[in-house]
Amino acid sequence: MNSGLVNIIFGMKVRQGRNAVGMNLSEFAAACELSPSYVTEIEKGRKYPRSDKIMRIAQVLNKEYDELVSIKLPASLAHLEAALSSNILMDFPFEEFGFEAADIVNMLTRQPDKASALIHALIEISRRYDVRESTFLRAALRSYQELNENYFPDLEEKAAECIQKYGLSKLPIPLADIEALLNKEFNIQVNYDDLATKPELSHYRSVFLDGVQPTVLLNEKMSVEQRKFALLRELGYQVLDIKERNIAYSPDRADSFEQVLGDFRASYLAGALLIPRNEIQNDIAAYFDLPQWEYKPLLKMLKKYEISPEALLHRFAQVIPEYFGIKLHFLRFNTGENTPYELTKELNLNQLIVPTGIGLNEHYCRRWLSIRLLEDLSTDQSAHVTNDGLAVSVQMSEFLNTQDRFLCIGFGRTPATLGGRSTSSIVGFRVEPDLHNTIRFMHDPKIFRVLIDQTCERCSLSAAQCADRVVPPVIVQKQEASLQRRKALRQLMNKHGA
């Protein structure tokens, strides 16, 4: 058991004992010949007193010394002990969210029996639905991004500084320039051969090997756009001096929030280097000022910065909320032969109803732009398909039950390089009364408009109303059956005067 947990258990016992004898903090501190601030530090698990002070505390609490210092907890608190010893709790940077780990500890230990029962329930739910620690950590990162409106001025300024310092102002940045920069400034070599010798590592885009000669191993199947991003990401680790990191990209797991946050910061910087803030801000302003929807300006941006569609929309999700005041969401879906549609990345800055039931293998609404871009686009007149298989489309989506509307723009493609799966990336702008003042083309009659819901299982549209349904609305049917049972039960109770 680590020392931090020992301190927490001791502090929890002191607090419980003090409450049991009915003493407030000042009274207890005076009786123990300690300062109130020191007692507070003990109860929060920050301090562990010397044995003479523990003896005085034990006397005031009418407890045995050995009982007070014992780290053994009753069986009813086993799950609480597991939570308190969790790396998530100990390593999570609570200060980023405006409070301390000690605040969480205080909440958990205020009524430890109830807290342990609650944690036991959460553990059971997590186990049943296979919620892993990395899932929690990445969800925490999304919350961190949303809390900051997905815009980080310090990283934007660092990107501007690097562009000036390392001469990266030429657009698009040449791949050779990035490779030379890493070698000259950081003694990092780039290797395109060694990763291919390990078939079991073929799904990684890059692997960083530290040592006498630091080396970035790049997957030879990556496109130029992917290679540049991976190398600029490595530059991000170096200039931001990030120690907690994954050596593999994209990682299979996450060991701590600090690691997840470090990976995110390096990626953010890479995107800001590839797509400088001032340049993309001007491009977006010109695009939004178009009187009608056009897809070619988006393709021009891809060419100008030599980036992937996902990288462009990621940058949209950083710059647009900050400089255009529009709430948006970002979604990325993957699919492949004999594999279902999989939501692999999301960012929600505008109260989007992210589909319920996706984790339960329900069927995502086929009317969402994310899915339409992954369907057969040759029959979809709202989409434009380029010669290299890149689909571009726009859609006005309206939720069936809430009437919330979102103007969605996105790309779909089946990459010929690394991945082997079709991917769609979209950004959606919440339609507010003044949105047309910023996005002039939003009322273009050519924009496809459609009613959407969450999943087929939860959609109340009839088969006649929706030809895109793939399974029956079983959740709606169960809810309706339950409603009818409750109605019949009330009628029966009324008949018998119950």
- Tell me the major beta sheet: 7 strands, mixed
Total number of helices: 20
Determine the structural class based on helices, strands and strand pairing.
alpha+beta
> Taking all residues together, what is the mean pLDDT?
86
Q: Tell me roughly what share of residues is in helical segments.
A: 40-55%
Number of strands: 11
Can you tell me the residue ranges where pLDDT is under 50 for at least 5 consecutive residues? none
Instruction: Tell me the overall shape.
Output: globular
Count the domains: 3
- What share of the residues does DSSP label as strand, in percent? 5-15%
Oligomer: single chain
Radius of gyration: 28 Å
Report how far the terminal alpha carbons are from each other.
Answer: 57 Å
Would you kindly provide a brief summary of this structure?
The chain has 498 residues and is of the alpha+beta class. It has 3 domains: 143 residues, Orthogonal Bundle (434 Repressor (Amino-terminal Domain)), CATH 1.10.260.40; 122 residues, Arc Repressor Mutant, subunit A, CATH 1.10.10; 203 residues, no CATH class. The model has no long low-confidence stretch (mean pLDDT 86).
Description:
By secondary structure, this protein is of the alpha+beta class. It folds into 3 domains: 143 residues, 434 Repressor (Amino-terminal Domain) (Orthogonal Bundle); 122 residues, Arc Repressor Mutant, subunit A; 203 residues, no CATH class. Helices cover 46% and strands 14% of the residues. It contains 20 helices and 11 strands. The strands form 2 sheets. Strands 5, 6, 7, 8, 9, 10 and 11 form a 7-stranded mixed β-sheet that branches. The longest helix has 22 residues. The radius of gyration is 28 Å and the shape is globular. The N and C termini lie far apart (57 Å).
